[in-house]
Automatic annotation (TrEMBL):
Residues that span the membrane, as ranges: 12-35, 86-107, 119-136, 143-159
Organism: Bosea caraganae
Domain of life: Bacteria
Membrane topology term: Multi-pass membrane protein
Entry protein name: Chromate transporter
Keyword Transmembrane helix (UniProt): yes
PANTHER family linked: CHROMATE TRANSPORT PROTEIN-RELATED (PTHR43663), CHROMATE TRANSPORTER (PTHR43663:SF1)
Record-stated family: Belongs to the chromate ion transporter (CHR) (TC 2.A.51) family.
InterPro entries per UniProt: CHR_Transporter, Chromate_transpt
One Gene Ontology cellular component: plasma membrane
Localization per Swiss-Prot or TrEMBL: Cell membrane
One example GO MF annotation: chromate transmembrane transporter activity
Keywords: Cell membrane, Membrane, Transmembrane, Transmembrane helix
A Pfam family it matches: Chromate_transp
Amino acid sequence: MPDATAQRPTPLQLFLIFTRIALTSFGGGLSGWFLREFVQTRKLMSEEEFLNGLAIAQALPGVNVTNMAIWIGYRMAGRNGAIASFLGIIVPPAFLVVAIGSVFASFSKYELSHVALDGAASAAIGLSLAMGLTAARRVPRKLFPLAVMAATFVAIGILQWPTLWTVLGAGSVSVAVAYAGR
């Protein structure tokens, strides 16, 4: 539940929040940091609102985390918040990636650098898993949504059907059934 007394961040504050998250996160799992920052810590939105935004961000073309940052920024501070959030999640990390890439290229011959990357990848997988479990808790425990999830997994993971057509088909059926049930 959002805290009614919580003050919404300004565009500058959003830029700094997203810059901090982007500069301290490795690999995937950024949406888990967004959840912690805006739902659990700052209480600016409910978990349900956040997960709805995540679903929208994942459905849109482009990078999910960037879409999510734009959505949160717009929700918190309108157009300027969306722009500030986008710049915070993209620009400072881009400079850092170029710098780290240059340094890593000179250290790539050492085994320790590969061990460090494996550790960062493990942490990113853990964050992604935590986000997935949070989202799975919110899925209605009804037969149809579980059947759609299982069918999508089988179609893409086992039968190797094209992801785009599978998601469009399963998503369309799922939305139509949910809409009809309201």
